[in-house]
Amino acid sequence: MLDIHAGPRVLRRGPDTGDERPYDRFTVTPLTPLIGAEIGGVDLAADVDGPLLAELRRAFLEWKVLFFRGQAITVEDHCRFARLWGDLEVHPFLSEGDVPEIVRFEKGADAKGYENIWHSDVSWREVPSMASVLRALEVPSVGGDTLWADMGAAYDGLPDDVKDRIDGLTAVHDFTQSFGRSLSAERLAEMQAQHPAVEHPVVRVHPETGRRTLYVNSVFTSHIVGLDPEESDALLALLCEQALVPEYQCRFRWSAGSVAFWDNRATQHYAVSDYWPQRRVMERATIIGERPSGNL
After folding, report:
1. Catalytic site residue 91?
2. Catalytic annotation on 119?
3. Does residue 284 carry a catalytic annotation?
4. Of 119, 195, 204, 206, which one is the catalytic site residue?
5. Domain coverage including residue 239
6. Which one of 21, 94, 191, 269 has the minimum C-beta count within 10 Å?
7. What global pTM score does this model have?
8. Is 244 domain-assigned?
């Protein structure tokens, strides 16, 4: 008899808070039953008052990724909205423009996309990202979508014996195996001194929802502490593969003026690189979070 591997049958969108209040300040159109929702009726160029911010936070925690279409915003608007949620980081490898908090991703005939691997932004920092805000300036006629995966659902879907095995483990996150590849030996040593590899819990407890999420990714996580290399590689591969399950994902088709706002503590994302040689121009602001913890 064939060994058939079926996908998950039971999914849990978020923490069991019992909060089923409707949203009064905007419309919410889910992309999937689990993750991702388009928000209608919010102008990100306008001021966001306290009640609207509170509703957006509730939707953000519930859906993990919020999408806003038709946003005619400036770089200043972009940063102002992102700063509502916390301080903004300056990326040591990607920040090059006039506004250091904004990272520009400009791809076309001379520069192919390379972000097509599941990851959580800057998990290699001692204090990684809380969230990212990405806006589309120019998009290809077709292609260039982005996918997000719910890493709380990914944790829920693990067998109980795997959950027991990873409870309390930590893993090393390191920029070297990604951004370090293009650096000279001297520059690499300099950046490693400024941004040494860090340990984070394999299972992170979300600081606002209390939900347990997988916090390893195939870009920045090098190994699990205390395991021999073969065992570490096998376990990391198993955990990173959880992001590949379609039931845990949503997919967004960009249009110019679209904005995505996602929780890096609860998700991973993947930018589909299928549009070359067309142009795709995006700008991102990243919000500094807190050091990951395996406890509430």
Report:
1. no
2. yes
3. yes
4. 119
5. 27-288
6. 21
7. 0.94
8. yes
